[in-house]
Amino acid sequence: MSRAESQVMDGLGARQPELPASPAPAAAAGAANPVVVDRLIGDQPARWWALAGSWLAVAFSVGFGLYVNLQAQGGEATLGAALMAMIPHYLVWVLASPALYRALHMTIQGERRPYWLLALVGCSLAALAGSTLMSYLSYSLRHDLSLGLAQLMDLYVYAPVGPAFHSMNLSILALALAAFAIVRGLRLRDHALWEAAQAELRGARLEAQLAEARLQVLQSQINPHFLLNTLNAVGGLVQSGERDRAFDAIGRIGELLQIALQSGRDTGVTLGDEIGFLERYLQLCELRFGANFRYRLSVPAALCELHFPALVVQPLVENAIRHGMDPPHPLTVEVRAWREGRELVIEVEDDGRGPPAAGFELRPGHGLANVAERLQLYFGPHSSLALEPRAPRGTRARLSIG
To answer: To 10 degrees, what angle do helices 46-72 and 3-11 make?
Structure first.
């Protein structure tokens, strides 16, 4: 093979290989942001084989094409020599691909974009320099030449071979980046499909939870014992001649039952609907306990239109009354909501006797555990329920929704 032909074979580029398939997206609960941690290889070493195989397949294709072309022109070339001219050159691109993909991905992602754009430029220059050096070393070894700067400049800088080689090398870089962008797009699509499937699954589970919650509302939150006590209080109003208050109480019981049944059928309501139901419940508690019970609601009107799972705050109030009532001391329950940055916070506080000695344990099947699980299903992992003692006495339940 002639020296010029060898130089051309060392310098020719090719179309970008078909890159490995995109990975299965991580589950929502397993990764806070799967896009940010996206890597070409990641923790799956087997992808190196697919990546190397793709690049080497292109090296073989280019080398074989060059061999056929030289044979057609009457040149002295062997297929082995053509492949050896291509393979070392493309091996550098195998090693550089993960870093190039990572830098390109983070540049598109937009976080610290100037830094990652600079990293992308640096990785690209390193890949170009590495492929040039590998091509030069391969050429020198195959032709038993001593290494030297003058020879490097003659082969890879000066015309006619130098500019042609770097033009081809830049085309490899451009096609590689385009292919990496396509891989990233496919991964984003797979991630979106995964999230949609997970959201549908969470919705189905939420529907099942709501069906159970409706039964719990009728059995525990507005149970026959509570209704009996309330009706006894209504009877006392009638006997004392306070018929207007008695009729008002009966009307509120009907409204409460109607809202509870409707909320049990709905996947979600607004926070305003939830607070409206809660206020009717608290009014009946006030009727039942008389002077031993007081309540305060503090929810800004701007938050009332937020979508919210039905019958979530009321169990916290019921828990406060059940564990906080300490006759003859009056019990005050306060419900308030506000924003902390992007987070919605709802607190239910009481000044009662406080949590039991063993504390509150969110056992599976327990009312508060169901509240916490429904929040997770409705809002995802960025939601929580916490119970803690309140100084000097009482309990605080805090819902945080990111």
So the answer is: 140
Range of the domain at 110: 3-197
Q: Domain count of the chain? A: 2
Assigned domain for 217 exists: no
Measure CA 70 to chain center. 54
The CATH number given to whatever domain includes residue 226 is 3.30.565.10
DSSP string, 70-128: HHHTT----HHHHHHHHHHHHHHHHHHHHHHHHHHHHHHH-TTHHHHHHHHHHHHHHHH
Exposed/middle/buried for 309, CB within 10 Å: 0-12, 13-18, 19+?
A: buried
Q: Which two tokens stand for residue 53?
A: 């195989």
Same domain, 54 and 108: yes
Strands 383-389 and 395-401: antiparallel
Rounded Cα–Cα distance for residues 212 and 315 (Å): 14
Residue 318 host element (H or E): helix 313-324
Cα-flanking dihedrals φ and ψ of residue 85, to 5°?
Answer: -75, -30
- C-alpha to C-alpha distance for 151 and 166, rounded to whole angstroms: 16
Mean pLDDT score of the chain: 76
pLDDT at residue 6 above 60?
no
Of 155, 182, 197, which residue constitutes the final position of a domain? 197
Task: Kindly give the residue spans of alpha helices, DSSP state H, lying in 143-242.
Answer: 149-156, 161-216, 224-239
Q: Are residues 179 and 287 in the same domain?
A: no
* Cα 272–Cα 338–Cα 284 angle in degrees, nearest 5: 45
Q: What is the pTM of this model?
A: 0.46
* 185: in domain: yes
CA-nearest of 380, 386, 395, 375 to 311 is 375
The percentage of the chain sitting over the pLDDT mark of 90, rounded to a whole number, equals 9
Q: Count other Cβ atoms within 10 Å, centred on residue 250.
A: 15
Tens of pLDDT, residue by residue over 257-289, are 776 666 555 556 789 988 988 888 888 888 778
Question: Is the domain of 34 the same as that of 157?
Answer: yes
